[in-house]
Amino acid sequence: MHVSNYFKRLLTVLLLTLPLSFPGWVYASTTPPATVLVLGDSLSAEYGLARGEGWVALIEGELKAGKDASLRRLVFVNASISGETTAGGRTRLPQLIAQHHPEVVIIELGANDALRGLDIRSTRSNLDAMIKDCEAIKARVLLIGMQVPPNYGKRYTDEFAKVFADTAQAHRVPLMPFLLKDVADRPDAKQWFQPDGLHPLAKAHPIIAKNVMGYLRPLLLRR
Questions:
Q1: Tens of pLDDT along 174-187?
Q2: Which range, of 11-15, 52-56, 110-114, averages the lowest pLDDT?
Q3: Cβ distance 110 to 146 under 8 Å?
Q4: What is the DSSP code string of 182-217?
């Protein structure tokens, strides 16, 4: 009888102290996985690539193979669509938020606005509205900018880049100024793009993924 009572008391002590003894186990069992929503265009939608070769998939794979248990449990939803504009992203975002409840949203839009000659003020308004939608649910935002070729003219080039900088500053969100940094600006850039000259080859996406991670990781660790 005394032995039985002893084991009962021992079991109670073990159950009470288990959370303190195994903090990793408790985190994994009680904290739901966080969702990272990527809202972009063809540069994020793996245009012209095999599935899994784009920068979004590469980042997700890197995190799942890493040592940080909390980052391994992240769920990436790549809602990027080829040809998407900031207006299209603004229209789709509320439904995506309602469906996925993201904790982090990566906005990579604007290049197609420039290609179609859309009003820069509209681009700014759309980016502003999307970030406000994210702020309403307390989702952290990474804004990714784009640069246009010099043949657009210096004035337009400067104003276009300024849209991303001003929007990021207004909302105090991190900005990656140029998604194609170290790819489009390298001396042999033509060798890193598909025949259309607009979409990077698969070999360029690890570079893009590494650069994006430099801005994204601090947001993920703030959970």
A1: 999 999 999 999 99
A2: 11-15
A3: yes
A4: TTTTSTTGGGGB-TTSSSB-GGGHHHHHHHHHHHHH
Task: Identify whether 196 is a catalytic site residue.
Answer: yes
Active site residue 205: no
Given the residues 80, 113, 199, 205, the one annotated as active site:
199
**pLDDT digit string, tens, across residues 102-148:** 999 999 999 999 999 999 999 999 999 999 999 999 999 999 999 98
Reply yes or no on whether 42 is catalytic.
yes
Per DSSP, 152 falls in state G
**One of 4, 29, 119, 196 is an active-site residue; which one?**
196
Q: Which of 42, 44, 80, 205 is catalytic?
A: 42
pTM of the model: 0.85
